[in-house]
């Protein structure tokens, strides 16, 4: 049932399902996500990546999550670049949902859950996100969660071989 969306901290055992999603969806994601090293598509490569994400979590700079539907991993939601200093208290948000689970509201609900975690558990004040100007589904997810666009970063990210502008989004948490 699409309503059953949860998020939790990523675990080493998530490597295999994440690699399977990313291998199957590599062509579909190429337009929206930067080139990844070949290991990204294997369980071993994902296991190394998860180790790095969890090290970032221990250091306090990241909250790397997975998105679950009925207990199965269908994507990731990552709070990155955490700046916990009292005068900043901000972070950025990223996410993806496997093509097999898209358009069922999972990203919208996962972002809502991540916003609650950022406010209640991480004590953050401000969150930022960036989307491609043509990534309308991702923009819908942010708008539905109270984000507003505040600018364009020109030639900001290399996607599928060309430098692309990014639409910048912000939301206050408290
Ligand atoms: C963007 C992404 C996370 C959305 O995940 P999702 O679970 O399908 O999102 P949701 O179902 O919660 O919401 C999708 C919204 O986009 C809308 N949508 C879908 N296709 C669309 C299209 N071609 N044009 C406009 N809107 C579209 C849906 O109607 C829905 O909006 P609504 O809630 O107003 O009805 C997913 O498509 C994805 O992972 N894409 C590839 C990676 C990516 O883009 N990551 C984000 C980088 S910023």
UniProtKB/TrEMBL annotation:
Pfam families with a match to the protein in the record: Acetyltransf_3
- Which PROSITE patterns does this UniProt record tie to the protein? GNAT
Q: Kindly give the Gene3D superfamilies that the UniProt entry links to this protein.
A: 3.40.630.30
Top-level taxon in the UniProt lineage: Bacteria
Task: Using the record's annotation, list all stretches that form the N-acetyltransferase domain.
Answer: 5-174
**Entry protein name:** N-acetyltransferase domain-containing protein
Protein's organism = Kitasatospora saccharophila
């Amino acid at each position: 049932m699409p309503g059953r969306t949860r998020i939790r901290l990523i675990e080493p055992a998530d490597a295999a399902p994440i690699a399977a999603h990313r291998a199957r969806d590599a062509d579909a994601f190429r337009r929206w996500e930067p080139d990844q090293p070949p290991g990204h598509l294997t369980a071993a490569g994902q296991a190394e990546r998860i180790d790095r994400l969890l090290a970032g979590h221990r250091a306090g700079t990241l909250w790397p999550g997975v998105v679950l539907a009925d207990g199965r991993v269908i994507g990731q939601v990552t709070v990155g670049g955490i700046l916990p200093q009292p005068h900043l208290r901000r972070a950025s948000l990223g996410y993806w949902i496997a093509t097999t689970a898209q358009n069922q509201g999972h990203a919208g609900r996962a972002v809502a859950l991540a916003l609650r975690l950022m406010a209640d558990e991480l004590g953050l004040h401000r969150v930022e996100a960036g989307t491609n100007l043509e990534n309308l589904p991702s923009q819908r997810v942010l708008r539905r969660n109270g984000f507003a666009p505040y600018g364009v970063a020109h030639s900001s990210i290399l996607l599928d071989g060309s430098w692309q502008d990014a639409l910048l989004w912000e939301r206050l948490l408290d």
